[in-house]
Amino acid sequence: MDWAGTLAYVFYSLGAIVCVLAAAWIARAGAEDRTDRWAGAAALALTANWCFAAASFPPQHIIVQFTEIAANLGWIFVLFRLFANDGRDEDLKIIRPAVFSLGFVECLQVALIVIQLRFSLTPELAQLVISTSAIFRVLVAIGALVLLHNLYVGASPSSRRMLRWNCAALAGLWAFSLNYHFIAFLAESYPLEIFALRGLAAAVIAVPFATGFATKAAGLSFSPSRAVTFRFLSLLVIGAYMLLMLAIASWLDVLAGNAARLTQVGLVIAAGALALIWLPSEKLRGWLRVTAIKHLFKHRYDYRNEWIRFTHTIGRGGMEDSSLQQRAIKAMADITDSPSGLLLTGDEDGVLQLAAHWRWPQLPVPNDAIPAELSAIMEREHLILDFDEVREGTEYHGEIALVPEWLREEPRAWAAVPLLHFERLVGIIVLARPLHPRKLDWEDFDLLGIVGQQLASYLAEQAGQEALSEASRFDEFNRRMAFVMHDIKNLSSQMSLLLRNAEKHADKPDFRKDMLVTLRNSADKLNMMLARLGRYGSNSSEKAQDFDLGVVARTVVERTSRNHRVDLLRHEPVMVSGQSEALEQALTHLVQNAIEASEKDSPIMVEISSDGLSGMIQVVDSGRGMSPSFVRNSLFKPFVSSKEGGFGIGAFEAREMIRAMGGRLDVESREGLGTRFLIKLPLKSAQQFLSGAQQTDKIRKGA
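Structure (tokenized):
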């Protein structure tokens, strides 16, 4: 026995011993939850059997060849079981055709062995069998490596930590096999020196492969790479094509001898021309890509089930979170398995503010939640914000600098989806990160964009219905007020007539005096009410007058303190410009609401102050308070009242009166703690300064 044979004997014996020990260790101490455990032990046992045969017989012996085929099929089955390790049948369906193809090509070695034993009558035919066998083994090694790469890339980070030893061992196995058989194809024979090293390679590979079974298989999931698998399918098609052409050319040479050389050259030229014409074709590559995605991949989402669930969530009005806004958040969050979310919609000025939340009440959302510039980008570009990309510095339309800090610094914020209706931004839904974090991909973006448009149509339809309902109720209210005004006008006329007759015919001076005072006061009050009702809803505005906030506040305090304690804490002269009667009416409503919300012994506090630009009136109570949802959605909404039989227009009318004078009405409230209303009106001095500045600016522009 020469030195190469001795080396082969030693290395293959070592490989057999190590593979047997590794198989026994996996069967005895391997992780019990690994579904590929027994497949790995069987593959090592088959490899040990092949190493034992290679150490006992020459390389081309039939027993060595058949045991090598069995070992290779065992390793292909191990790869198949690695994909199935998470117990999902879908993953097996995806890669089963590819694994079956690899097994089929490996089984073709049996046919080559039969041809070699019975039909290798000439050296040329024997050489053709060896070259064909090497090509088949090269194709199997390439396909297995591509599938192995697909397995590792598609696994989650935790699964990769478990798979790294197994994948490294299998990568070494097939990389060595690829180089070994490719060299044999080029050299037209199997070098004995490299053949001897295969036993040592088997021993080296067995150790890390067995080590990988000490890691638990919990959480393994597979997400196949479409790009890689498309290349793999393309490689298989090209390889099969070239192999077919090579086989035809080689068999022509065997069957026809030197006379077929011209035929061989023509066939190779024709095959090359055909490949250059069809392989770069966009149509062919498009068909191949569609075929691969259609038959080898499952989509992330079951769109039928997702749409059914989405429709049920939106249409189920009896759920705990019964508002459409909350159901919209939940419908979108369910798609991505997000545990919570927020809905931001525009107010009257177009500023996006919190409209509703679903299971995320603890997140502080500022009043100006999303800058107008970012809203414009999301509306124009249909941009779905991936906050992980924003934190990494990836941007597409210059949006990074516009993302607010409260979202950038919130680790649970995952994605922001614009709700677009006829290319107009209706709102934005912010989704929380799923419990099992993952990166958003193209399928997420496509589905979330479509769902966002559908939700926008629902929200826009609800807003339109509310506007129609409000207009209808306003119309009904105006019709009712027309009758009330008519009755009040008649009553005022009658009382005025009675007053005139009493002035002429009353006999007793004391009675006459009392009657005159009573009737005069009643007539004045009725006339004031008539004037106010006449102004309600009209577009005309009274001429602004200068008045002192303190005078109006004292008048209201004196009138309302007869029935409840109302304290004027601070009073300083504050001159503003507006309608004092309208302010008095608005302030009376706010104070009366505070009284009704407070206990009998709980005082109401009124305070007058100025910040240099505005005069301010604060009305503070320590009563029941209001929920943020009521303040946001119902307080200033007409015909929505917490009082039985109330019209629900008091707060709305007060805010509109103050706005008509160039002011604003703000409210802060906490349930169980109380409420603070703040009226702001521009100071007379500030208005004069602004008017002067505007006049100066006009003069400059005219010059």
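The two ends are 112 Å apart (CA to CA). Confidence is low (pLDDT under 50) at residues 86-90, 216-223, 254-261, 537-541.
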